[in-house]
Design the sequence.
């Protein structure tokens, strides 16, 4: 029963995520916060947990420390510069966002993808681009552990946005 | 933990725009907008990301679908969560309904969150063509929008144009005694990148006087190195490292600002000095 409910809820979530236009115009059932990602056992690592519970996951900017990465931003850039193989010649341009949860142990999970062209219209990039970005992101074992009050490590949402020009990464944000 | 979350949410709420004066809509006979505005007042105390906040905004928009402020209010959570698709649809509605009020904001966000340089330039220049008053500052107050526009021109390779725009705006800012936290630094980096090392050092000194930063010392070091002044090069790098460790560096809660440097950059230069 619980599994059926989880799958049903996940399908509703995935469906609602894809219907951006309707999202604006129609009333919808929001989750706790915009951008929340629920565990989907069909696609997510079942071992991954938010240490303090889903209801306590914050956003990376809540601590007012700016975007924090293990090894700072050059660490992220070096990783993608080394591992990403450009897929050129297919006129692949726009933004790819990978949003995920970083837990209190500095581990990441629940990766979700959003893609658009430079006019912010949803598109589908070549799978070989998206899969590479996703796998490299998933393969990064250490993310910055952020601490709340009383030095307690928190769970938080983070995202990476890749600007893609002709299949090559030109910038990584934020 | 709950108290901590409450605290961060209160901090986030304090950053919100002031709600428009609903009575003004009533005074001018726009009763629909007045009612939508009154409904929107119910968001007070709710976090922008929350379902409670978003539901109230939806209700406000169902009262008056032409209430630009509500589209803007609804868009913020999508912007900050990196959902550029939904954000753009919402903020476009706000711009369509009241371009003078929202073009500057949209342009700034396109730059700050998505490094959409051409889009940001387009919005800021369109705003400039629509109003005969000062186009104002970025949402976070860090830059005059013309400085942001200059940075966008730099990013698309038009450095001479960027220098001219930023020089002009800094002159105006000096007259108003309202220099931005990173204005001189950005101009100095542009001088440095275009080979004007002495001019770069002049403005880096001004930056030191208003807001000393690790970046300022780092780029000063590069200018000294280009001028073959190895002693100052080394001194500046060491000061840059001290400032970096002390957190005197460029900062934005949401993104990494242009011209920001990292400890790895300083260490790499120091390694060169010591070899």
Sequence:
């Amino acid at each position: 029963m619980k599994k059926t409910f989880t799958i049903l809820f996940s399908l509703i979530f995935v469906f609602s995520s894809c219907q951006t236009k309707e999202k604006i115009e129609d009333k919808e059932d929001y989750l706790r916060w915009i951008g929340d990602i629920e565990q989907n056992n069909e696609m997510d690592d079942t071992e991954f947990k938010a240490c303090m519970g889903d209801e306590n996951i914050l956003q990376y900017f809540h601590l007012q420390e700016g975007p924090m990465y293990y090894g700072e931003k050059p660490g992220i850039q070096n990783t993608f510069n080394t591992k990403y193989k450009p897929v050129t010649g297919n006129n692949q341009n726009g933004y790819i966002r990978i949003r995920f949860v970083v837990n209190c142990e500095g581990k990441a999970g629940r990766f979700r993808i959003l893609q658009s062209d430079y006019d912010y219209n949803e598109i589908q990039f070549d799978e070989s681009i998206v899969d590479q970005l996703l796998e490299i992101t998933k393969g990064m074992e250490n993310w910055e552990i952020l601490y709340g009050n009383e030095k307690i490590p928190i769970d938080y949402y983070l995202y990476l946005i890749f600007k893609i020009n002709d299949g090559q990464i030109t910038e990584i944000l934020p | 933990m709950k108290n901590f979350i409450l605290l961060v949410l209160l901090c986030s709420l304090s950053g919100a725009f002031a709600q428009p004066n609903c009575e003004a809509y009533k005074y001018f006979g726009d009763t629909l907008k007045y009612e939508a505005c009154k409904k929107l007042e119910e968001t007070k105390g709710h976090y922008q990301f929350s379902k409670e906040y978003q539901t109230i905004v939806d209700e406000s928009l169902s009262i008056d679908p032409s209430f630009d402020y509500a589209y803007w209010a609804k868009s913020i959570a999508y912007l900050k969560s990196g959902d550029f698709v939904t954000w753009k649809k919402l903020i476009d509605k706000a711009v369509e309904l009241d371009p003078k009020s929202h073009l500057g904001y949209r342009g700034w966000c396109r730059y700050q969150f998505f490094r959409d340089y051409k889009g940001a330039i387009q919005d800021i220049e369109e705003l400039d063509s629509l109003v005969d008053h000062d186009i104002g500052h970025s949402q976070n107050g860090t830059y005059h929008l013309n400085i942001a526009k200059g940075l966008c021109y730099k990013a698309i390779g038009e450095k001479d144009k960027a220098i001219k725009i930023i020089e002009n705006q800094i002159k105006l800012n000096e007259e108003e005694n309202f220099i931005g936290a990173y204005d001189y630094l950005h101009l100095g980096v542009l001088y440095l990148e275009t080979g004007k090392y002495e001019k770069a050092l002049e403005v880096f000194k001004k930056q030191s006087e208003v807001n000393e930063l690790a970046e300022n010392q780092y780029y000063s070091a590069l200018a000294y190195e280009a001028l073959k002044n190895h002693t100052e090069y080394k001194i500046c790098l060491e000061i840059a490292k001290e400032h970096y460790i002390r957190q005197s560096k460029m900062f934005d809660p949401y993104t990494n600002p242009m011209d920001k440097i990292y400890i790895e950059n300083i260490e790499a230069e120091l390694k060169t000095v010591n070899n």
About this structure: The longest helix of chain A spans residues 2-18.
